[in-house]
Amino acid sequence: MRSTGGEHQKPGRYQRQTVYAPIGPEGQRRLLEGRVAVIGVGALGTAIANSLARAGTGFIRLIDSDRVETSNLQRQMLFDETDASRHRYKAEAAAMHLRDINSSIVIEPIVTRADESTMAALIDDVDVVLDGADNFEIRYVANDACRRRGLPWIYGGVLADSGVTLNVLPDAGPCLRCLLPEPPAPGSFSTPERAGVLNQITAIIGSIEAIEAVKLLVGSPDVRRTLLSIDLWTSSFHQIAVLQDPDCPICGGRRS
């Protein structure tokens, strides 16, 4: 049996979740047995990890090779000035703070870059993979590896006041390559350095990624099947159908 951190929970900790009918006691039990990997522990990743830890997800793997900088503090909610001044690794700093939040679950920091050489091992023993990355290269590697492994993964991206997220489900719809067949060409998209990022949009997209992971872990039939696009400044929310590409080399008819 895979080890989780759910064996020694304090009574009543998750009472507000267990009385919520779509989760209930059985759903909470499944959460405590659930295992997730968060790829990237920046603005999205810290929001995701914070939410899932507080919800009682039994095992959370945090994957990132970067260190905390002062400029991160505006939007990366698990870090503080001490983390920045000591140049702590993001994965390790986030794990330290999450253990203070919930000492009864397992938080595993992995200080490494997720890429083609490491991805398979990083996701081999989890149930859901969540996107906290800041570049498309890693996202395509995650997309392809999860599809080969038969794992659900949750894509999310933010820029300025806008964000998008899509659940990529095994054998149940489109993957990231159906939405964007190839990574955007360098310079074709604006960047956070030029356009900025509001911390509120990272918190919202990260929270939506987290709740979709909760749905998957508890076995809910209400997992979203559309691309969700948010423009926060104008309070615009749109759900967009994404069709599976029959010629997609990863999930379509041309799969090897």
Task: Give your account of this protein's structure.
This protein is an alpha/beta fold. The protein has one domain (21-181, 189-240): Rossmann fold, CATH 3.40.50. It has 10 helices and 8 strands. The protein has an 8-stranded mixed sheet, sandwiched between helices. Helix 7 links the parallel strand 4 and strand 5. 43% of the residues are buried. The mean pLDDT is 93.
Spell out the key features of this protein.
8-stranded mixed β-sheet; 256 residues; Rossmann fold
Tell me the overall shape: globular
Major beta sheet, strand line-up: 3-2-1-4-5-6-7-8
Count of DSSP H/I helices: 10
Weakly predicted, low-confidence segments:
none
| Cα separation of the termini | 32 Å
The SSE order reads: HHEHEHHEHEHEEHHHEE
Largest beta-sheet details: 8 strands, mixed
| CATH topology-level fold name | Rossmann fold
CATH architecture assignment name: 3-Layer(aba) Sandwich
Mean pLDDT comes to 93
**CATH H-tier superfamily:** NAD(P)-binding Rossmann-like Domain
As a percent range, the share of helical residues equals 25-40%
Rg estimate, integer Å: 18 Å
| Structure class | alpha/beta
